Amino acid sequence: MKALYFNGSGFEYFKIWIVNILLTIVTIGIYYPWAKVRNKRYLYANTYLEDRHFEYHATGKQLLLGHLIAMALLIAYIVTEHLFPAGAGIVIIIFFFIFPWVIWRSLMFNMHMTSFSHVRFSFAGSVGNAYVNYMLLPALFFIALYGPMVASAIAIHFFGNEGAMSSSTGGAIMLGVVFGLCLAFYFFALMKKRNACYAIGNYRYGQGVFSIDVETRGFAKILAKTIGLSFLVMLGTIFLMGIVIATVGYDEIWAMSGTMNDPELMQEAMFNEYAIAFIGVIYFILIVASFIIAAYTKARQRLYIFSNTTLDNDITFASTLKARSLAWVMISNLFLIILTLGLAFPWAKVRMIRLTLENTQVDSEQGFEHYISQQQQSQSAIGEQIGDTFDVDFGVGI
What we know:
Layout: E1 2-3, E2 5-6, H1 10-26, H2 32-45, E3 47-49, E4 52-56, H3 60-83, H4 85-112, E5 114-116, E6 119-123, H5 127-162, H6 167-200, E7 203-205, E8 208-212, H7 216-248, H8 250-257, H9 263-270, H10 273-307, E9 309-311, E10 315-319, H11 323-339, H12 345-358, E11 360-364, H13 368-378
Antiparallel strand pairs: 1-11, 2-3, 3-4, 4-5, 5-6, 6-7, 7-8, 8-9, 9-10, 10-11
Helix pairs in contact: 1-2, 1-12, 2-3, 3-4, 4-5, 5-6, 6-7, 7-10, 10-11, 11-12
């Protein structure tokens, strides 16, 4: 198998990034589409596989219309929220209904504007499936998650106040909540499966067709393990908090908590060295724990998706990304960005890209060079034209 690799550097990307930031500020955001194009062209041009690199062909002018529409929606939301608060909900509803269309157009645009070794990618998904994946299923997920809880709260409010709630009613409420959580669990796994199949299963490389064979239960297993890991991390966090409290002193912590209703005492307590140490350790533990869980989930989903994806049923893919390596880069990048007040962002991004690419492998028994030559000869058959559109960052856990 051949691994992808990144040939750029953090300093080179920093020079592009800082100029883009300054020009975007000076133009009050108008330059942003051109900044995004410059960033993508550098990152794509330095992404290689077998000494062949990717290219990004979009222009700032093509992204401008989508950017202006997005800015108009944001301004409309801010204005209506201040002048007519109820109207802000209307803007959110409008965005909710156009969001699947935005995802669909973005996938079409980004794929068509991407090429590898002079062969263009494309996307063949339908807008109807986009509405199923990005509007219907999320709606069902939130209904399943919060519906039984809302119904239970209403039932408790009416029956509980009157003392009329029987044990059978309470059992039915509990059963409804558990059923809702199980249903939400299923819908979440189904969303992950359908999103991966919709995106990857509709990718094209020249005349080549990507295919993916994943199941809902595969994502359900990853989700179940993630929930289990979260409980273990939570127990570990509680244990570490206990150690901190034992070290700092229970009386100090209790004295601090007793000042919560007194602003002057609270301000004084916040500058207590023990209180600062306690709060700092707790935040550090929670940040590290959240990154470990996120890294585990992404690494497992990536492994599952890549191992079940092929191109023309001949070229296979593999992910060797480990959760611990990903977690380390995520955590160290965060502190690097904080310590440099954001100036280290280009180096952090390059580190993440390099880690991801080096753990992305491609294999072809017939020879990748021969396959690319075939696609270059048939490339002229693809003649779709993509005009001005939205360009949003979209991922399926890869």
